[in-house]
Amino acid sequence: MGASARRRYCDDACRAQAYRDRQVADRIWRLGLMLAEAEAIGDTGMLRLLTCPVCGRITFAGGDRRRDAVYCSGRCRSRAWRRRAARRARAA
């Protein structure tokens, strides 16, 4: 009733969610650019940081995942933990 015709969002919660979604999309875009640049110049250190150490898929940590994410999924995280546990068991 009192809403402007130019109004874009239904309420503040929707506006805030749209802002967060734009921030995530921007981070993913920047990480993609970093990955492309690392592949172009052959920067193996950066490639190692941007890919999952278990399966080799791109992690996009800091995009839609935690900024400190190492693995692409819980499945890879569990697989890595099992490998470490098996190594410890063999060493003992």
Essential attributes:
0% strand; 3 helices; 92 residues; mainly alpha; single chain
Structure description:
The protein is mainly α. It has one domain. 60% of the residues lie in helices and 0% in strands. The chain is built from 3 helices and no strands. The termini are far apart. The relative contact order is 0.09.
Note the topology:
Blueprint lengths: L11 H30 L2 H7 L23 H18 L1
Helix pairs in contact: 1-2
By helix and strand content, what is the structural category?
mainly alpha
The low-pLDDT segments are: none
Count the E strands: 0
Mean pLDDT: 86
Terminal-residue CA separation: 73 Å
Number of domains: 1
Helix content: 55-70%
Secondary-structure element order, N to C: HHH
Judging from the principal axes of the Cα atoms, what is the shape? elongated
What can be said about the biggest beta sheet? none
Strand content: under 5%
Radius of gyration: 20 Å
